[in-house]
Target: META domain-containing protein
Amino acid sequence: MNKSLVSVLTCTLFVVLFNCKSDTAAPSENTTQSEVSNDKTSDSDLTKPISTYFIGFGSDSIWTLDISNQFISFSSEDSTFENFKIKTPGIIRAADANIKRYQGPTALGDVVVTIAKQETEDQQSKPNYKTTVEFTNKKDKTSKSFEGFGKYVMDYRLNATWILESIGNVAVSVSDFNEKLPFLIIDTVNKTYSGFSGCNGLGGTIFSENDLLRFKHGMSTLMACPDNKEKLYRKKLQASTQYKVTDSHLELSNPEGATVTFKKAE
Model:
């Protein structure tokens, strides 16, 4: 066997061995047990960009809480409860629909995060969710609780101008409206929307909690446009409760199916 053939076979064997070793690599030392064992986050969520939908902060001490579609992260200035990060478990809904809980194991002990809605005078600017993070150590039966407030934040990917593409599953064209297609401008910071609905201008506020999205009716002009799909579009927009967003499209829906689909303006 000549030297060149030996060299080729040796390189091939090295590549195979390297790939096998990579496929069976153990979790890194920095990965906590809770991150490995807690698998409540769905596979579909793991394919989405990480998007924070709730932030909390302390009222009696300095701490922060971040809940995304993939992880719950907590940090504080308490030396015995500095931080943790776990996969986001399923939501536990109380009999009172305004209370939601998340629970799971961490290196600091079992944790229960409780989010309770409270009414405030200014729903848009003030945090109106009482937030509690409670740890329980089963070994020594000790517990520690952090109390504060929090608020839901909108998916930053929604912040754009969106042009109507279809109502339900039926494509629309300019001829269905008055000279141009309806468009929607979403402001995720102020949780508001504005735009053109095919004949009239429209605008209002947005209610957002995790993957729940509702467009609350607000201002509107009062022009009359016969043979126009504006009323149908507005009805479908108001009926929307869920969304799916990509780099180019925004799909709104409700439990009955698709409501409206938009294309992102360039």
Remarks:
- The longest strand covers residues 142-152.
